[in-house]
Amino acid sequence: MDNLKAIVESLLFVADTPLTIDKIRSILKLKDRKAIENALTTLTEEYETQKRGFFLSKVSGGYQFRTRPEFAEWIRQMKRHKPVRLSRPAMETLAIVAYKQPVLRSDIEHLRGVDCGGTLRTLLERGLIRVLGRRDLPGRPMVYGTTKRFLEVFELKDLTDLPTLKELQDMQQSWPNDST
Amino acid sequence: MDNLKAIVESLLFVADTPLTIDKIRSILKLKDRKAIENALTTLTEEYETQKRGFFLSKVSGGYQFRTRPEFAEWIRQMKRHKPVRLSRPAMETLAIVAYKQPVLRSDIEHLRGVDCGGTLRTLLERGLIRVLGRRDLPGRPMVYGTTKRFLEVFELKDLTDLPTLKELQDMQQSWPNDST
Amino acid sequence: MEQAQNMGAYHVDLGHTFEGPMDLLVHLVKKNEIDIYDIPIALITRQYLEYLNFMKALNIDVAGDFLVMAATLAHIKSRMLLPGKQEEQEEAEDPRMEIVRPLAEYLQLKDAAQDLAGRPQLDRDVFVRAQSDGDASPREGEQDLMQVSLFELIDAFQKIIKQKSPKDFLNLTLDTISVKSRISQIADILEKRGSITFEELFDKEAGKSEIIVTFLAILEMVKSQVIRIMQHASSGIIRIFNG
Fold first, then answer.
1. What is the secondary structure of B82-137 as a DSSP string?
2. Cα distances (angstroms) measured from residue B37 to each of A99, B43, B51
3. Which among A143, B19, C68, C89 would be 20 to 30 A from C209, CA to CA?
4. Same domain, A153 and A97
5. A40 in a domain, yes or no?
6. Do B66 and B112 fall into the same domain?
7. Is B165 in Cβ contact with C183 (below 8 Å)?
8. A99 touching C, CB under 8 A?
9. Residues of A numbered 100-139 whose beta carbons fall under 8 angstroms of chain C's beta carbons: which are they?
10. Has residue A35 been placed in a domain?
């Protein structure tokens, strides 16, 4: 296929979710996985070296164009909306779900020492977490886990892309005053 | 302003309508009209000579990125695979079927307060619900229930993964300070 | 000196309400620059109680969780004061571990939350292209993927419950949902095979609750006339048919 790189680029431009290599293959009806991989790698490098306004991000198992973080202020200016922020309690709850999944509400509340019904609902509403199923315990409590959307929002390739708790602890020790 | 070209590029990327020079000026709080014009001209030329997957088009008094017409076929191909969303009424009807099955159309309409023939047909077509049988009542009304496909779409192992009324009510009590 | 420290606590806390006891403990640990593995329990307990009293003085309701932690701290403090025998002390764990472990774990997850918050976040730091709704609407394709989350379904259902009196849904417990789940499974079998014997529906390995759930499912299916039950005149075998 001629101009494979440009075709892939146009697909990435139009797609509303990160595109996986398999998805691109099925759209282009192309057997050659390697060729698509090469096109994606070249594109990534080109956007990087040419310092364009957006870059090709590897996220949630796929590829997606995203604007450079350093231009965020201007884009917010254009969009005229306040950045959506998660409250600190919501962020803590999300971190617990991310690191301890599959996790029970009672585990989260035990860790945080407060009721988490509200924050869980907020996170469900935002599509950042989901109900994975039920645990075989009295009352069959629901267990929670993170979603694909979570990976997309926090620009993670997959869950292993998160630093481990051990790594975080080491980082913390190198900057003892950095905690608030 | 440094990297004016890249900033303009990022704005064009995110904008959902063609951007005029005046609009860009007001976003960037920039007096210099000429500088923006230059950035736009350079961008247009770059996209043209580099044969990228999309190009900067001058439309209705503004500028907008558009995919190359010669790739239209592939983009249509991708859109054909685009996931469809369920409308709000369809979602409500589906929720009632899920929670009240085996359920009659008249029961659903009683709860929703409107005719549900259309949404039921949509859900049947999408394979989310099925006719379980016919009730021995005047008109032999159909009894509805959910399908395996329903479980797949909502990533449920089985129906017991649905939250109970009590769990739903627990989740509703959002903390007032958690609206984020 | 002591006085100054206490005053400090009040001033810092004025603009800040603590979400829970852990939150408050973390604040005290950080304010006093304490090693959490060697907590001066008397100092922390006193400051903790001072904060609670301060909240009460302001007529702010102190949640029960805070009082439970206060009791825990007081208990640890008293155990620290108890003069134990030499060998007992070697055996026994440091009473402070009761709060050190959860505190360490909480601090770790707070770090994780902070790290997460520091990442480039979609729609805050990075943006993707806006989707123009004018795009050709998807046709009924062969694959017909669906993009819905369980939350959207639940949310739709909650709206209905709010509009209607909840009595329409009073029996919505896990048990009744289990019965619905079983109904769905039986319907799957009947769709495939057309009929099934009564015995076949009861797995020999099934526990008591599963047997009850299956029986209730059959009753409900008969009631809503989704199935018919027939018994063979001579063999006595009971068979269930699609309605």
1. PPB---HHHHHHHHHHHHH-SEEHHHHHHHHSS--HHHHHHHHHTTSEEEEEE-SS
2. 49, 10, 21
3. A143
4. yes
5. yes
6. no
7. no
8. yes
9. 110-114, 124-125, 127, 130-131, 139
10. yes
Answer yes or no: is A179 within a domain: no
Domain count, chain B: 2
Chain-chain contact of A52 with B171 (C-beta, under 8 angstroms): no
CATH number at residue B124: 1.10.10.10
- Does A121 sit within 8 Å of B13, measured CB to CB? no
**CA of C225, closest CA in chain B: separation in Å?**
5
Beta-carbon contacts of A141 under 8 Å, excluding residues fewer than 6 positions away, are A104, A105, A106, A134, A135
A109, part of any domain:
yes
Residues of A in contact with C65 (CB under 8 A): 113-114
Q: What CATH number does domain C141-243 carry, 3.40.190.10, 3.30.1490.20, 1.10.10.580, 2.30.30.370?
A: 1.10.10.580
* Long-range contacts from C99-102, C-beta under 8 angstroms, 24+ separation: C99/C25, C99/C39, C99/C72, C99/C73, C100/C36, C100/C37, C100/C39, C102/A110, C102/A111, C102/A113, C102/C22
Reported ipTM: 0.83
Q: What is the pLDDT along chain C (243 residues), one digit of tens a residue?
A: 444 444 444 444 444 678 889 989 999 998 899 888 888 999 999 999 998 888 888 877 777 888 889 999 999 988 888 766 555 555 677 888 888 999 999 999 999 999 999 999 998 888 898 765 444 444 444 446 677 888 888 888 888 888 877 677 767 888 888 999 999 999 999 988 889 998 888 888 878 888 999 999 999 998 888 888 888 888 888 899 887
Whether residues B92 and B71 fall in one domain: no
- The residues facing A55 across adjacent strands are A66
Tell me the residue range of the domain where B115 lies. Answer: 88-174
